[in-house]
């Protein structure tokens, strides 16, 4: 079992994960996600996770999944390995839990089913970013653009800047909470380098602000993620 305050992968992690695929949801490292689990296959998944390494990997269902939802519909190869922080079983037998994202990963292959839920072998995507002297200014620019795109989060974003949060953490936080299309979020999840991720996110924010300006009577056409 992992220590109650650990947010790192267990030392014996070998890349075998439990998949929890959802539609239009992309988890990022460092983000805490509340979940309600009611399907029996995912209740089994959670109970197995709690009994062993507490790990659940969030995957994103690809378009057209509805036709095969209760089987094994295609998912994006880019996923986020998460750890169960808290869990509570309801009187109805369902679960409420909090899951924190730990690491980016890419699915190499799915494992033949031996349980009701899906499992896969993944490869972690490790950041190789070198220190960047301009990262402070870039972080401020990202924060300003994100605050303009999502004014309700301006105070939280400013607190992150004031506390000198890393570029990696800032881009992951913004990538999760900003109302971006699912395909754009998957691009950001697939990019392990914080500097490259910041450039992609900055361009995406600029595009969103531009759309807002062109369509003053309508919100930006983003997904409800």
Give an overview in words.
This protein has 225 residues and is of the alpha+beta class. It has two domains: 16-124, Roll (Archaeosine Trna-guanine Transglycosylase, Chain: A, domain 4), CATH 2.30.130; 135-214, no CATH class. It is 34% helix and 24% strand. Strands 1-3-4-5-6 form a five-stranded mixed β-barrel. A hairpin with a 5-residue loop joins strand 4 (78-89) and strand 5 (95-111). The protein starts with 15 loop residues before the first strand and ends in an 11-residue tail after the last helix. Mean pLDDT is 85; it is low at 1-5 and 213-225.
Task: Write a brief structural summary.
The protein is an alpha+beta fold and 225 residues long. 34% of the residues lie in helices and 24% in strands.
Quick tags:
225 residues, alpha+beta, Archaeosine Trna-guanine Transglycosylase, Chain: A, domain 4, 5-stranded mixed beta barrel, 6 helices, globular
Please tell me how large the radius of gyration is: 18 Å
Number of H- or I-type helical stretches: 6
When the domains are counted, the total is: 2
From the N-terminal CA to the C-terminal CA, the straight-line distance is 32 Å
Shape: globular
> SS-based structural class?
alpha+beta
CATH topology of the largest domain: Archaeosine Trna-guanine Transglycosylase, Chain: A, domain 4
Unreliable residue stretches: 1-5, 213-225
Largest sheet: 5 strands, mixed, barrel
Strand content bin: 15-25%
Let me know the CATH homologous superfamily of the largest domain.
Answer: LON domain-like
Named at the architecture level, the CATH assignment of the largest domain is Roll
Q: Could you estimate the helical fraction of the residues in percent?
A: 25-40%
CATH first level of the largest domain: Mainly Beta
H/E element order: EEHEEEEHHHHH
- The residue-averaged pLDDT reads 85
DSSP strand count? 6
Placed side by side, the strands forming the largest sheet appear as 1-3-4-5-6
């Amino acid at each position: 079992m992992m220590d109650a305050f650990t947010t790192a992968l267990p030392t014996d992690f070998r890349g075998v994960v439990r998949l929890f695929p959802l539609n239009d949801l992309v988890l990022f490292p460092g983000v805490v996600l509340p979940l309600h689990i009611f399907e029996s296959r995912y209740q089994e998944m959670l109970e197995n996770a709690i009994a062993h390494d507490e790990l659940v990997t969030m995957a994103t269902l690809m378009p057209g999944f509805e036709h095969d939802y209760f089987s094994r519909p295609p998912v994006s190869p880019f996923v986020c390995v998460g750890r169960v922080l808290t869990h509570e079983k309801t009187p109805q037998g369902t679960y409420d839990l909090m899951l924190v994202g730990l690491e980016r990963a890419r699915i190499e292959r799915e494992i033949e089913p031996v349980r009701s839920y899906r499992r896969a072998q993944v490869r972690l995507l490790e950041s190789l970013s070198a220190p960047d002297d301009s990262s402070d200014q870039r972080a401020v620019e990202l924060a300003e653009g994100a605050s303009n795109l999502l004014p309700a989060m301006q105070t939280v974003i400013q607190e992150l800047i004031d506390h000198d949060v890393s570029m990696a953490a800032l881009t992951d936080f913004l990538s999760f909470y900003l109302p971006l299309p699912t395909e754009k979020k998957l691009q950001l999840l697939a990019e392990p380098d914080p500097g490259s991720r910041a450039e992609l996110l900055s361009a995406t924010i600029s595009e969103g602000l531009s759309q807002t300006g062109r369509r003053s009577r309508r919100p930006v056409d983003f997904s409800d993620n």
